[in-house]
Amino acid sequence: MKSISFRCGAVTVVPYIGPRSTGQVCQICDRMLRYINQETKYKCECSQGCN
User: Fold this and answer.
1) CA gap 48, 41 in Å, rounded
2) Is the Cβ–Cβ distance between 46 and 6 less than 8 Å?
3) Can you list the positions of beta strands (E) in 1-51?
4) Predicted confidence (pLDDT) per residue in 1-20, tens digit
5) For labeling, which of 3, 21, 33, 34 is most exposed (least CB within 10 Å)?
């Protein structure tokens, strides 16, 4: 999985690495760095800042 940089406010699909959703592909949906899995609709919190 390639490392994809994302920007705040943009709708970008990025690989999420975290304690709850390791390896899941989530979509950034707002500037609060909250991610949601399109398949499971599971919200993930991002541990990274805006790049």
Assistant:
1) 20
2) no
3) 13-16, 24-28, 34-36, 43-45
4) 444 444 444 445 555 554 55
5) 3
